[in-house]
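Consider the following assembly input.
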Amino acid sequence: MSFRTLALLTVLALPTIAQAAERECAQSPGKVIEVCVFTRDGQALYAVSKGGKPVLAAAPMGLTFAGEAQARYTGITAAKRSASDTTWEQPWGEQRLIRDNHSELTVSLAGDTPLNKSVDVVFRLFDDGLGFRYAYAAIPADQAVAVTDDRTEFKPVGAYDAWWYEALGQERDEYLYKQTDARRITLAETPLTLRQNNGRETGGLHLSIHEAALVDFPSMLLAGDGAGTYKARLMPWADGTLARKTGAFATPWRTVLIGDSAGALADSRIELNLNEPSKIADTSWIKPGKYVGIWWEMHLQKSTWGSGPIHGATTQNAKRYIDFAAKYGFDGVLVEGWNKGWDGDWIANGDKFSFTEAYPDFDIKAITDYGKAKGVKLIGHNETAGAVPNYEAQLEDAMKLYESVGVSQVKTGYVRHSGTILDQDGQPQWFAGQYMVRHNLHVAEVAARHHISIDAHEPVKDTGLRRTWPNMLSREGARGQEFNAWGDPTNPPEHTVILPFTRMLAGPMDFTPGIMDVVHGKTELTRRGQSTIAVQLALYVVLYSPIHMAADLPENYEARPDAFQFIRDVPTDWETSKTLQGQVGDYIVVARQPRGGKDWFLGALTDEQPRKLNQKLDFLATGKRYEAQIYRDGPWADFRTNPGALTVEKKIVTAKDSLDLDMAAGGGAAVRFKILD
Ligand code: NOJ
Ligand code: CA
């Protein structure tokens, strides 16, 4: 069935406006999830159940504004219901066609303050969770308001474990997750993943609390009260206000994914469905792909970002990487340290960065011309060190220059301690407060005008905005591979089996997998990569990103042609994706089918425990034979003692078979299923 036919089959129920009751409830299309809204003791409350069992107990909603007391909500004045079942197509993604099947309930609340006199809460209910947002439609167009509190709370019923790290730490979102009783959460970043305490044994509930469509509003954190309630805490402006708005506005969606397994969270598409359709009409210039770059060599201190005798970004070195990319089929070469401003303490002196002037030993025109002849694009790099006004002042000129030489992708960066970004008035800003949320989108908009896609590091967290701005290709926003070069400690094996069920629920991550020499001359385990080589391959499948780097040095790939073959073969754009098995922090098995292709790819990872998993291959097409090209941990492989041991073997399989995934400690497996008939 074509996409067009699917769209025609769309069922759009007409909205119905009912007489307001004291309590309004609505169910998801399959009657799985139910929300009820009511007012009590001056509070507007919502409660959520799944299959008739309470999941979130009654918890407050609403905003408080400067110059007003906290509103008392006295009742529901109107309720409106509708339903929609549509399917839309992503220009690129983990899944080409996305079904958006939801019911909607809008309740109008009456409050006793001028700004809260009438507020709508819009709920969208899906069978795997919900989103809700506040719409303050009655605020006059020219009236400036300041939000001073987001009253939203989440009250999961029962005992939960949580994977989280302390929010607002100086390294932003680059922390290792800890697993604790959820009641020990002090202040957590979202997406926040919770699992019912007995979840493992009984298949109990998994929840993920996050937000969608974070536009012109501060990013939401969750503050725990020690007793299992999590309250929205928004990253403030320097004067303590949270959001500055003028006229009518709606907040981002507050979202809760509700699943019976960890995999159900990973396979939910609520995040995308709650974002607006693309604002970019022609998306044909936005290209997923694989890249290499002058990058890991700086992180290993073999070359420098700044000028000098071992400057990495030279014309000659860039050409060497272009040759390598062309030879092995990569689309782009990222070059960091090409522009003036890196000398000295660049983190302290971010306002010295030029985004148009190259160091004299880097000839941008010669390099891009050389790349064009070989079919390889230069990927730009804009490290701002958090000096946002300096970047914004040059943004238009910079993007114009890059477009003129055929650069179509730029990696940005905001290396600066959380909360110390200075705005044009010298006021400190959080890395994901309203100011940076605006900046983030501004960069994407300017870039889009110049047909440039963005890969943001140290970013505002992802909230599904790639649907609206498909040139927001990927971002960092977690501890990536770079920590395996210089981290103290580096990422332990469980990090990459936590990410798929936490950070990745927000959207794609530019993790930069593919390190062949994980030891890189280090003697201490916690100062080098803590994985086997099979893991480095599996990450291309497990961690979704439309752009993936092959992060290691060219010579390290040429030394491992066995493993490198998988990196050359694996695509980054998918027809469909399925999480086949998984437990947060323990293991995961993911299968993805290339967009427009018939093959399948599989990635499996374990934590520090060796693990044997049997995987049914029933996702393959029935009646077809496939050559399974298996890259698995070799004899005596172990992330501690023998990370490089890899066995590559081939087998003929069908959908009726199953595969034993025998993973070493800190190991994994990567498989390409190549269709034969
Ligand atoms: C941090 C980024 O995550 C990394 O990829 C980059 O190389 C450095 N900043 C320098 O910009
Ligand atoms: Ca980083």
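Residues 174, 457-458, 476, 482 surround calcium ion (ligand 2) (CB under 6 Å). Ask yourself how this observation constrains the way the partners meet.
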